Amino acid sequence: MGKIENGINGGFTGSVGAVTGYYLNGKWVIRSKRRKSIKNKTGTADQKACRSRFTMMQTFLSPVVGFIRIGFNLESKKRGMTAHNVAKSYNMLNAQNATGEIDYAAVRLSFGNLSGAEGVKLEHDDECVHFSWTDNANGDYTRQHDQVMLMVYDVDNKTAIYETSGARRSKERESLEIPSFYKGNTFHTWMAFIADDRMEISGSTYCGSFVF
User: What is the pLDDT of residue 52?
Assistant: First the structure.
């Protein structure tokens, strides 16, 4: 809606029909409204592909946002971004192809320089999935007390079960309980370590998949 300034003989501000009025450099100016470009609205093929990839990664990360808020917290502070945006940016660049397909083995759910998991093995029974690893602290007392972070993620059904304050690195074993109604579902798994004071974290390690 436009507004008349200084009576009927004055200029006007705002929009009326197909024109817009405003005051510029001491003069009243009227111009036609800008129209949105159909090209920009619909998007080029490359823009559509990028939007599709973005949406697919957004959908993939949504169920694990609580995990990545911790996993990418330190890196997000360095970059001045949210942990979710840093995780999305990293994984779109490193774990997603041009068609949007996600390479789960390349996905990272945490990012840092702490020593990661080594010698990882998975076992599961009717109630739990059991993770085991090799203590690679090399006698460092602080590193022995790092805590394991575990993720099991049913990508097809967008369901995640995780632990962010698990057993110490020196314990070499931790388990996640899985409700019985998930039997028959396929889960992808990741593991990372976080320092006791939360000031250091490792990059996550993909540990494979299993059918519960």
Answer: 87
Place of tokens 């993939």: 60
Between the CA of residue 119 and those of 6, 130, 202, 212, what are the distances in Å?
80, 14, 15, 22
- Contacts of residue 12, defined as CB under 8 A and 6 or more positions apart, other chains included, come to 2, 3, 4, 5, 21, 28
Cβ-contact 164, 194 below 8 angstroms: yes
Distance between CA atoms of 70 and 68, rounded to whole angstroms?
5
Positions in the chain short of pLDDT 70: 1-50
In the numeric block, the tokens 């111009």 are attached to: 31
Query: For the residues of 41-85, what is the DSSP string, one character each?
Result: HH--HHHHHHHHHHHHHHHHHGGGHHHHHHHTHHHHHHHTS-HHH
Residue type, 170: S
Convert the pLDDT of each residue in 76-86 to its tens digit: 999 999 999 99
Distance between CA atoms of residues 90 and 94, nearest Å = 6
Contact 152, 206 (CB under 8 A): no
pLDDT at 58: 96
Q: Under a CB-based contact definition with an 8 Å cutoff, are residues 76 and 86 in contact?
A: yes
